[in-house]
């Protein structure tokens, strides 16, 4: 009797989690399937359906064919913009955050805990509080509507997270290690390069994945500070939906959504463990 | 000193830039909110006039009501979903890693993508309603997206889909760190699985619960991309949220002073959540030291 109720509760558990998992996968499945259906086929039925034949041409059209705001180059230029913003900003914010985190946790200097406290407050400050000042700063420095401007913003704002991640990681390294190295005559950079960096891969992977995902997915700054051909892909997707509102092209739009989501999805698939570690590390602040 | 200049610069320049921009930008926005700025920032003092006109505007009132509804519904439902999923995954089931990855993958996708996809699924002429109609059940209705009263719930649905996995991940970590002796003692006392969760395990999770609530509220308060892609505030202004009002005032109506006032109001709402949380964390830490 006990075994049977145990078995049936096991079945119930598997049933519930499978149903929820199916619901969670459904939106992805819908986009993947629609990206392989022609616009006409979707218009005749609904967005939920099996492709009659695989319309791979949607991807070609999405990548380099369709028009956003009178430019018909597909999503490719916007993907390039996103890459040109995300990659440098990720590298800069991670490197600077690692050095600063190392200095705060192991080198100790006057005012270190103060500056650390202020910098990490940036995790909580809403973007809306920074929109007007950034607008003015970018305008006055001539960086409005440039990718460089976005790199600058994401580097400075990303520091709040990268410093937090790295400082919390380095704080577990014993101070004696640094003291011994200093007695041997090693300086700030030499210790960082020779001792700290070789210990850092785990936290650097977490930080890079976190920064890349967030900057790639960012929308508000992209749409506010860039227009037309300079926009990152998130802003371009919104512009695309608006541009085709009269004659929907859901097949091509689905392909465009897939392409835009692919970089962060791939990173998640490859480095999921580190992605989750970043999520929870940010949470326990 | 000169010899140490490179290291001083590498340490301080990024940190100071970061700290300075946080403080200066906050003060700057607060200052603009007290000026009569419209198209460009100007000096001058109008007291609280921007605040009173924002607070009196229908746009803001709807946005605020929506935030209360969206915030509480989203936080409660994602908390419940996350907790249930975590408990189920904690039953030593097969394929736990795969399932966990499935519940968490939406967090890797941008809100623009999430909003766009859900706008298709929830569009009565395209998505779920159309599918059910095509299958023959023609009286079926699921048109919240174009229903003024229900549209805000479409944002709740999409937000739950996007971030319940986060709650699940934190709860699961919490469940895994429950003291094994505690569980063993309860087992010896003859506690069944339900009693075990209610009396022994769940009470240890409440600090995590509060953290999850605060983080989800913080997300709810600053929600922008998701609404922009899903409903764009519509139908009409039925799904307006504070972050959309700020953007609208600043960049579509060019009322910088009022936009800044709305941004400061957003910050105040956020502080109403974060300050009690910070105080609670402080007390907890002090108690931990004294204990």
Report the major sheet of chain B.
Answer: none
Mean pLDDT of chain A: 90
Give the terminus-to-terminus CA distance of chain A. Answer: 48 Å
- The tally of beta strands of chain B, per DSSP, is 0
Instruction: Enumerate the spans of chain A where pLDDT stays under 50 for 5 or more consecutive residues.
Output: none
Share of helix of chain B, binned: over 70%
Query: Low-confidence segments of chain B, ≥5 residues, pLDDT <50?
Result: none
Oligomer: heterodimer
The CATH topology assignment of the largest domain in chain A is: MetI-like fold
**How would you spell out the order of helices and strands of chain B?**
HHHHHHHHHHHHH
Mean pLDDT of chain B: 92
CATH architecture of chain B: Orthogonal Bundle
- Kindly report the name of the CATH homologous superfamily of the largest domain in chain A: MetI-like
Explain what you see.
- The complex is a heterodimer of chains A (285) and B (291).
- Chain A has 285 residues and is mainly α.
- Chain A has two domains: 2-64; 76-283, MetI-like fold, CATH 1.10.3720.10.
- Chain A contains 13 helices and no strands.
- The longest helix of chain A is centred in the last third of the chain and has 34 residues, at 250-283.
- Chain A is globular, with a radius of gyration of 24 Å.
- The N and C termini of chain A lie far apart (48 Å).
- Chain B has 291 residues and is mostly helical.
- Chain B has one domain: MetI-like (MetI-like fold), CATH 1.10.3720.
- In chain B, 71% of the residues lie in helices and 0% in strands.
- The longest helix of chain B is centred in the C-terminal third of the chain and has 35 residues, at 256-290.
- Chain B is globular and about 75 Å long.
- The mean pLDDT of chain B is 92.
